[in-house]
Amino acid sequence: MWAQLFGNPLTWDDLPWLRSITSLPLIVKGIQHPDDARRARDGGVDGIYCSNHGGRQANGGIPALDCLPAVVAAADGLPVLFDSGVRSGTDVVKALALGATAVGVGRPYAYGMALAGAGGVVHVLRSLLAEADLLMAVDGYQALADLTPDSLRPTA
Hints:
The chain has about 160 residues and is of the alpha/beta class. It has a single domain, classed as TIM Barrel. The protein has helices at about 1-5, 15-20, 35-40, 65-75, 90-95, 105-140; strands spanning about 25-30, 45-50, 80, 100-105. Strands 1-2-3-4 form a 4-stranded parallel β-sheet. α3 (about 35-40) packs parallel to α4 (about 65-75) and α5 (about 90-95) packs across α6 (about 105-140).
């Protein structure tokens, strides 16, 4: 049924072909397991996008944020982008502390666009950045490089 509606899906076997047809950066999205991160890395991708696509496809899945540290470790130095459930600057800081190279947002800027057009998007993005900046300042972190997984939990 899926193939009839959407055509043949890409598989891991298609990764060398994709790599061969472009010199653009190749980033695979939807990675939530370290084995898949290793497979993508070994297949020649330029980055890995840890995401559950906003969690809309199925109830009860593992939160992407919980998968992020293992995906980052398996990526072995490749950039790891992250999205899924990012609604605040605090969410951005958490993802960065867990090793994300960059953090994407979906719904917040869509809500801003729906409410106030381009100005709403600007407001949402400025608010996310301001909240992240405030959180880092209050917690004593001067730079993103200072964030580590230990930043998220109090030490004993």
